[in-house]
Specification:
Layout: E1 15-33, E2 36-44, E3 47-55, E4 58-65, E5 68-72, H1 75-81, E6 88-98, E7 103-111
C-alpha cells in the first residue's frame, strides 16, 4: 500500500518587490498621558498594606495619507511630531507588490528634517 501526500500552498501571495518612498503625511492627532503612580491600600486580617504601581506613559500619533489613518504608539514618534498637529511632515511609504499583481501601501515611519 502506497500513500502519497501532496501539500500545496493555495491563496498565499508572495512579495516580489518592496519599494520605499518619502511622502507627505498630515498629523491629525497627538495623545500623551503621563506616567501615573497608583496607590492601593489593602486590609488583610486588620493589617493595612500599601502598594504602589506605576502605569507607563502613553504616546500616540495618528497621521493620514491618501485618506487612510496610521497610528504610531511610541515615545520616539510622539517627540518627532510634538507641536506639529495639523501640519504635514515626511513619512516613509512602503509599497509591497505581490506575485498575484496586487500591491499594499503602508506608512511605516515618520520623520522631521
Amino acid at each position: 500500500m502506497v500513500i502519497i501526500i501532496t501539500i500545496t500552498s493555495v491563496g498565499c501571495a508572495k512579495v516580489i518587490s518592496t519599494e520605499h518612498k518619502t511622502v507627505q503625511v498630515k498629523i491629525i492627532d497627538l495623545y500623551y498621558k503621563p506616567e501615573e503612580v497608583v496607590k492601593r491600600v489593602t486590609n488583610i486580617n486588620g493589617k493595612k498594606k500599601t502598594n504602589y504601581t506605576t502605569k507607563r506613559a502613553e504616546y500616540k500619533v495618528t497621521v493620514e495619507y491618501n485618506g487612510i489613518q496610521y497610528k504610531f504608539k511610541d515615545r520616539k514618534y510622539y517627540y518627532k511630531a510634538e507641536n506639529k498637529e495639523g501640519q504635514n511632515i515626511n513619512g516613509m511609504l512602503e509599497i509591497k507588490t505581490y506575485d498575484d499583481k496586487t500591491s499594499k501601501e503602508e506608512i511605516i515611519d515618520i520623520f522631521v528634517e
